[in-house]
C-alpha cells in the first residue's frame, strides 16, 4: 500500500537531491558531459561576490517577510475567530490571493508598481505625493517584493492559526474570565502558548517557503536592479539556465539546503517545549 | 556517456514537461517533427510554410513549439541536457558557436552536397555565419536590421516634415538634429515640448523615443556602431566595449534618458521585465523607436494603415549603421529523424518556402532574390521598408560572435540597466562588463 508514495518520494525527491549533491562536484554546461572537479565549485564561492550577496539578500527577504506575515496572519485569525458577521466570507477573501497563480499576480503587481503608468503612483499623485520607482530602486525593490508575498500568503497562514485557535478548549477562557484575567493576559498565558504547535508548523513551512522564493522575483524584477533582489534561489536559476553553470548552481543549491536545514533544526529545538493544561 | 550524466538526465527529465509522451504518436509510419521558435509574430508565416511543406510530405507532421526569447534558450538548453530537444529549431548566431562546439547541432554539409543545394542563392556572409570548423550547421532563414519606425500623427502634431527624418544626425556633445527631433516629439501634459523652457520632464505624455532591448541590438548597439564602436576586437575576439568610442555611445544612450528626457524612462523599459519599444509606440506613449525589421508585422497589426512609416537610422559621428543579423533553421544532433528533419530545413531554406514568408511581409528572406518581394509587400501596405536595406550598408557590423555570449549578455544587461537609470557611470559599467565577459 505504501509503495506508490515511496516510489514517488524516491523518484521525485531523493533521486534529484542525490543528483544535485553529486553535480555540485562537477563542471557541467548542460550541453556536453559533466567533468569532475572535486571541491572547486565550493572554493569558488568564497570569491563570488554575486552569490555571497544573494545569500545576504535571502536573509533580508526572510526577515522582511516572516515577522510581518506571521503577526498579520495571527491578528487576522484572532479577528475571524470571533463571532463577527460574514466571517466565512472574510475567511475566503483572505485566502483568495494564495489560490491565484503567483506568476499572474506578479505581472499584475508589476503593472501596479510601474513608476510612470502604474496604478499606485497615479493614486499617490492624487495627493501630490511623488511615488518612487518601486521596482528599479534598489532600496525599494526587496521590500515591495516582500510585501507582495506577505499579501499573497497571509491568508493561507491564517488558516493554520484559525485551526489552532479552534483546538484551544473553551473552558480555559471561561476559567480565565472567572478569575478576572485581562484580554492581554489571556492572550499571553492561554492563546499564545497553546498555539505553539500551530506556530511551529507555520514558521517552519513559511520560513522554508521564503528561502525558496522565486516566481514573484522572476516576474517582477528578475533579480534586479543591480542584483538587489537576486535571492540565493534566483541566483541558482541564473547560474544554471542563463550561464549554463549547472555544477556551480548545484553547489549553491546544496548551500541553500544546508542553510534551511540548520534554521529548521533551530526552530524545532526552540519550540520543542509544549504547554499543556490538565483538566482532569 | 558516463553515469553522472545519466543520473542528471534522469532527474532533469522528471523536471521537464513530459513533451516526449505528448508527441510520440506513431500513426501508420508517419513521422512527427518538433519545430521550435521564439517569435510568435512569425507564427502565421511558419504555419503557411509548413502547409506547403505537407503538400509534398504528407507523411511528416510538424508540431510548432513557441517560447518567447527569454524562456526559449533556457528551455532549449535543458532539453539538450535531457536529450529531448526539438528536431528542428531556430538558431541565433549568439548561441551558435557554443552549440556547434558542444556537438548538439547536426552537421548538414553532406546533405547539402547530396541534394545539390546552391549556397549562392544566399548572401555569402549570411550563409557563412552558420559555418563552424568546415561544417555547415544551418540554412539561412532570414536576415534583419534596424530602422527608425515613427508615427506620422506625432510628427504632424510637432510640425515635422517626414521627408527630413532620413537625414537626422547625432553627436555626443549637443545631441545634433536627432536629439532636437526627439525633443520636439517629447511633449508634457501642458503641451510643451522638451525644447520649451517650461517643459516638465516629470509629466510627459509622449516621449520622442522608446528604447528597450535584452541584448543591446535595438538600443545602444545602434549608437555604438554609428560612433565607430565595433563591440569586439574582431569576430570571435574579446569584447571591447570599454573603448572610448563605445563608452561615448553608451553615455549618449543614457543621455537620451536622463539628460534630454526624450526616451520612455528606463524604470519602465529596462529588460527583461519592461515592455518592448512597440508597446510604447503603438499606444502613443512614444513617437518613434529604432526597431528590428522582424517587428514590422507587430506595427502593422497594432497601428492604423498609413499612420506610421519607416526611415533610415540616424547618423552618428562615424556614419549611419547598425548591427545586422540573421537566423537559421538548425537540426538537433540527437534527432530520431535526421532525414525528415533535413527535408524540412531544406524546404524552409528554399526560395519556394521563403517566398511565402516574404509574401506575407513576415521577415527579410535568406534567399537574396526575394528581397524585392518583401519590399513590394510592404510598399503595398504603404510602408517604404528600404530603410532596413540602407541600414545593412554603411558602417554596419555583424552580430558579435563569441563563446562568452551568455556571460557578456547577462553582465551587459545588468550593468547598463543601472546606467540607463542614471545610477552608474558609463565608463565604470563598460569596464565591469568587459572584465566579466572576457574572463572565461
From TrEMBL, chain B:
This is Multiple sugar transport system substrate-binding protein. Belongs to the bacterial solute-binding protein 1 family. GO terms for cellular component: cell envelope. It comes from Glycomyces harbinensis. Keywords: Signal, Sugar transport, Transport. It is found in: Cell envelope. Residues 1-22 form the signal peptide. It comes from the Bacteria. CDD domains: PBP2_TMBP_like. The keyword Transmembrane helix does not apply. InterPro entries: Bact_solute-bd_prot1, SBP.
Amino acid at each position: 500500500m505504501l509503495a506508490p508514495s515511496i516510489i514517488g518520494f524516491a523518484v521525485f525527491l531523493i533521486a534529484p537531491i542525490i543528483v544535485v549533491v553529486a553535480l555540485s562536484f562537477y563542471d557541467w554546461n548542460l550541453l556536453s558531459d559533466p567533468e569532475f572537479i572535486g571541491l572547486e565549485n565550493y572554493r569558488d564561492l568564497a570569491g563570488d561576490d554575486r552569490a555571497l550577496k544573494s545569500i545576504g539578500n535571502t536573509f533580508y527577504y526572510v526577515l522582511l517577510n516572516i515577522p510581518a506575515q506571521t503577526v498579520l496572519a495571527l491578528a487576522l485569525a484572532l479577528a475571524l475567530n470571533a463571532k463577527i458577521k460574514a466571517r466565512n466570507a472574510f475567511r475566503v477573501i483572505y485566502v483568495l490571493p494564495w489560490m491565484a497563480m503567483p506568476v499572474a499576480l506578479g505581472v499584475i503587481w508589476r503593472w501596479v508598481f510601474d513608476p510612470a503608468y502604474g496604478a499606485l503612483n497615479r493614486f499617490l499623485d492624487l495627493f501630490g505625493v511623488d511615488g518612487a520607482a518601486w521596482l528599479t530602486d534598489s532600496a525599494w525593490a526587496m521590500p515591495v517584493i516582500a510585501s507582495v508575498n506577505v499579501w499573497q500568503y497571509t491568508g493561507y497562514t491564517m488558516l493554520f492559526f484559525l485551526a489552532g485557535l479552534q483546538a484551544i478548549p473553551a473552558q480555559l477562557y471561561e476559567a480565565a474570565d472567572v478569575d478576572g484575567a485581562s484580554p492581554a493576559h489571556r492572550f499571553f498565558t492561554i492563546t499564545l502558548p497553546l498555539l505553539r504547535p500551530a506556530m511551529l508548523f507555520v514558521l517552519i513551512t513559511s520560513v522554508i517557503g521564503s528561502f525558496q522564493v522565486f516566481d514573484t522575483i522572476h516576474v517582477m524584477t528578475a533579480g534586479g536592479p543591480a542584483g538587489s533582489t537576486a535571492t540565493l534561489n534566483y541566483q541558482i536559476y541564473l547560474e544554471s539556465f542563463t550561464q549554463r553553470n549547472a555544477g556551480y548552481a548545484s553547489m549553491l543549491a546544496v548551500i541553500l539546503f544546508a542553510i534551511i536545514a540548520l534554521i529548521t533544526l533551530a526552530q524545532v529545538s526552540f519550540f520543542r517545549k509544549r504547554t499543556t493544561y490538565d483538566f482532569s | 556517456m558516463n553515469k553522472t550524466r545519466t543520473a542528471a538526465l534522469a532527474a532533469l527529465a522528471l523536471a521537464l514537461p513530459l513533451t516526449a509522451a505528448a508527441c510520440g504518436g506513431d500513426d501508420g509510419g508517419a513521422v512527427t517533427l518538433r519545430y521550435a521558435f521564439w517569435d510568435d509574430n512569425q507564427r502565421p508565416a511558419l504555419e503557411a510554410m509548413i502547409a506547403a511543406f505537407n503538400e509534398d510530405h504528407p507523411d511528416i507532421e510538424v508540431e510548432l513549439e513557441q517560447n518567447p526569447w527569454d524562456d526559449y534558450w533556457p528551455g532549449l538548453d535543458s532539453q539538450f541536457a535531457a536529450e529531448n530537444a526539438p528536431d528542428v529549431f531556430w538558431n541565433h548566431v549568439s548561441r551558435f558557436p557554443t552549440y556547434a562546439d558542444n556537438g548538439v547541432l547536426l552537421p548538414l554539409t553532406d546533405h547539402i552536397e547530396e541534394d545539390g543545394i546552391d549556397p549562392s542563392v544566399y548572401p555569402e556572409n549570411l550563409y557563412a555565419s552558420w559555418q563552424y570548423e568546415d561544417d555547415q550547421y544551418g540554412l539561412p532563414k532570414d536576415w534583419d536590421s534596424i530602422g527608425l519606425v515613427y508615427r506620422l500623427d506625432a510628427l504632424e502634431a510637432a510640425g515635422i516634415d517626414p521627408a527630413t527624418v532620413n537625414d537626422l544626425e547625432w553627436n555626443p556633445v549637443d545631441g545634433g538634429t536627432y536629439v532636437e527631433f526627439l525633443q520636439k516629439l517629447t511633449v508634457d501634459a501642458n503641451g510643451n515640448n522638451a525644447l520649451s523652457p517650461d517643459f516638465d520632464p516629470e509629466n510627459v505624455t509622449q516621449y520622442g523615443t522608446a528604447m528597450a532591448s535584452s541584448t543591446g541590438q535595438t538600443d545602444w548597439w545602434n549608437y555604438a556602431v554609428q560612433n565607430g564602436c565595433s563591440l569586439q576586437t574582431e569576430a570571435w575576439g574579446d569584447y571591447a566595449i570599454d573603448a572610448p568610442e563605445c563608452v561615448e555611445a553608451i553615455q549618449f544612450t543614457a543621455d537620451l534618458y536622463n539628460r534630454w528626457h526624450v526616451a520612455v524612462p528606463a524604470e519602465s523599459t529596462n529588460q527583461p521585465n519592461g515592455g518592448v519599444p512597440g508597446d510604447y509606440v503603438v499606444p502613443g506613449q512614444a513617437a518613434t523607436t529604432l526597431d528590428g525589421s522582424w517587428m514590422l508585422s507587430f506595427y502593422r497589426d497594432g497601428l492604423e494603415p498609413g499612420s506610421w512609416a519607416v526611415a533610415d537610422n540616424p547618423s552618428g559621428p562615424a556614419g549611419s549603421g547598425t548591427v545586422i543579423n540573421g537566423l537559421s533553421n538548425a537540426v538537433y544532433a540527437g534527432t530520431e529523424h535526421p532525414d525528415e528533419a533535413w527535408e524540412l530545413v531544406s524546404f524552409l531554406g528554399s526560395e519556394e518556402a521563403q517566398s511565402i514568408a516574404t509574401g506575407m511581409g513576415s521577415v527579410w528572406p535568406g534567399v537574396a532574390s526575394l528581397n524585392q518581394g518583401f519590399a513590394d509587400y510592404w510598399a503595398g501596405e504603404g510602408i517604404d521598408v528600404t530603410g532596413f536595406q540602407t541600414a545593412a550598408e554603411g558602417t554596419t557590423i555583424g552580430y558579435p560572435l563569441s563563446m562568452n555570449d551568455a556571460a557578456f549578455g547577462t553582465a551587459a544587461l545588468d550593468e547598463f540597466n543601472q546606467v540607463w537609470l542614471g545610477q552608474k557611470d558609463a565608463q565604470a559599467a563598460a569596464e565591469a562588463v568587459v572584465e566579466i565577459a572576457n574572463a572565461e
